[in-house]
């Protein structure tokens, strides 16, 4: 079976994708610098699949180390590239850190792939490239808007770098996957999200409040022009999202792609408000969540949810899990890691 490199394979989406790749029989090699992940995730993956993936601790900024890696693993057929910094606020404070971590490393990686006889490349992009879209649901043809943060900009620039490289590199094929809001955990609760410090994202903040680690959830604004006044997002279960990576990779490996570079939205197609997410948590946990409405968070968009037609039709992929499934698994995971 083909050997696939997963960069950032011990992170939240990376680890779930490794599980799905192994379930489909792929041989997985993970590189991760452990800057925002834990080595214990390797055991979590192994306990689910029964097979320990090969792991190398490697920072993609270490050019010489990356060279040695590709010389050793010269039979890699595909790369799923998750390794990147992802904190929006931090990226505003430290733009060069983000450009170095997310852009330099991408360039090094593509230079390696250029030299392989053939390579299939899957890139972690984000719906953040659309900003506040003019039309909902958001299709892949919606214009890319001026990025709100250096983090968002690294996703836009990253897509452009890959597109330009694919144009002139016939042996390289790539798909950028634009994620909406990934949430939840594996149903085994052996892997899940491990935010460092105070979570910035909604769902880990909710489960940490539920378990008593945080006193109260602040709901950022209830005066938006939405049905209940809170912002709307498309929350996609991380296991559905992980499966989409395997489908996208197979599309490239089996030469089913229509162009050398393609983009797909990955979401459920359904928008949920912040208060609906809170209610889903309360429903599946049986707990009452302590929350209060506070002012708007700067930079938040009002509403974003995916048009999933292209992914459904061309990838033959659709989400199977619901928001309740996601909240149930996230809660099970939170309880397990705190016990
Ligand atoms: C955020 C980032 C986005 C990034 C994505 C990665 C911002 C402005 N946007 O998206 O660029 O791609 O994470 O996952 O940081 N909320 C609360 N209280 C909280 C936390 C969140 O009410 O304590 C609300 C937010 O206002 C938002 C929703 O919950 O309406 C989801 O927030 P979040 O999980 O941070 O995701 P995004 O803002 O969509």
Structure description:
It is built from 11 helices and 13 strands. The chain starts with a strand and ends with a helix. By secondary structure, it is of the alpha/beta class. Strands 3-2-1-4-5-6-11 form a 7-stranded parallel beta sheet, sandwiched between helices. It has a two-stranded parallel sheet with strand order 7-10. The protein has a two-stranded parallel ribbon with strand order 8-13. α1 links the parallel β1 and β2 (27-32). It is 41% helix and 18% strand. It has helices at residues 12-23, 40-49, 63-72, 88-93, 95-114, 150-168, 202-211, 238-253, 274-285, 309-315, 323-338, and strands at 3-7, 27-32, 54-57, 76-81, 119-126, 172-179, 181-183, 217-220, 232-233, 235-237, 261-266, 272-273, 291-294. The site of uridine-diphosphate-N-acetylglucosamine has 19 residues, from α7 and β8.
Shape: globular
**In angstroms, what separates the terminal alpha carbons?**
38 Å
Q: How many runs of DSSP E, i.e. beta strands?
A: 13
**Order of strands across the main sheet:** 3-2-1-4-5-6-11
**H/E element order:** EHEHEHEHHEHEEHEEEHEEHEHH
Major beta sheet, specifics? 7 strands, parallel
Going by helix content, strand content and strand pairing, the class is alpha/beta
Ligands in the structure? uridine-diphosphate-N-acetylglucosamine
Helix percent band: 40-55%
List low-pLDDT spans.
none
Kindly provide the radius of gyration, computed on alpha-carbon positions and rounded to a whole number of angstroms: 19 Å
Mean pLDDT: 97
Number of helices: 11
- Strand content range: 15-25%
């Amino acid at each position: 079976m083909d050997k696939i490199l997963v960069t950032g394979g011990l992170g939240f989406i990376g680890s779930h994708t490794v599980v799905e790749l192994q379930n489909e029989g792929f041989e997985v090699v993970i590189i991760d610098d452990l800057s925002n992940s834990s080595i214990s995730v390797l055991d979590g993956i192994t306990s689910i699949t029964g097979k320990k993936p090969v792991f190398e601790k490697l920072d993609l900024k270490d050019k010489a180390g990356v060279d040695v890696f590709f010389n050793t693993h010269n039979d890699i057929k595909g790369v799923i590239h998750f390794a990147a910094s992802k904190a929006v606020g931090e990226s505003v404070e430290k733009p060069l850190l983000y450009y170095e971590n997310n852009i330099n490393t991408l360039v090094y990686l593509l230079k390696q792939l250029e030299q392989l006889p053939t390579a299939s490349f899957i890139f972690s992009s984000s719906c953040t490239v659309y900003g506040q879209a003019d039309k909902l649901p958001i299709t892949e043809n919606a214009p890319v808007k001026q990025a709100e943060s250096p983090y968002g900009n690294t996703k836009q620039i990253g897509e452009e770098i890959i597109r330009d490289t694919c144009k002139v590199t016939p042996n390289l094929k790539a798909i950028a996957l634009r994620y909406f809001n990934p949430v939840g955990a594996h149903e085994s609760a052996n892997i899940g999200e491990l935010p460092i410090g105070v979570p910035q994202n909604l769902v880990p903040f909710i489960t940490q409040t539920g378990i008593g680690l945080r006193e109260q959830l602040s709901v950022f604004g209830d005066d938006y022009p939405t049905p209940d006044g809170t912002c709307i997002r498309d929350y996609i279960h991380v296991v559905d999202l992980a499966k989409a990576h395997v489908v996208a990779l197979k599309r490239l490996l089996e030469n089913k792609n229509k162009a050398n570079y393609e983009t797909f939205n990955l979401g459920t197609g359904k928008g949920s408000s912040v208060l609906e997410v809170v209610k889903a948590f309360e429903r599946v946990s049986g707990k009452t969540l302590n929350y209060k409405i506070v002012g708007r968070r700067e930079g938040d968009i009002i509403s974003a949810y995916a048009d999933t037609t292209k992914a459904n039709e061309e990838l033959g992929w659709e989400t199977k899990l619901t928001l309740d499934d996601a909240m149930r698994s996230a809660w099970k995971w939170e309880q397990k890691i705190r016990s």
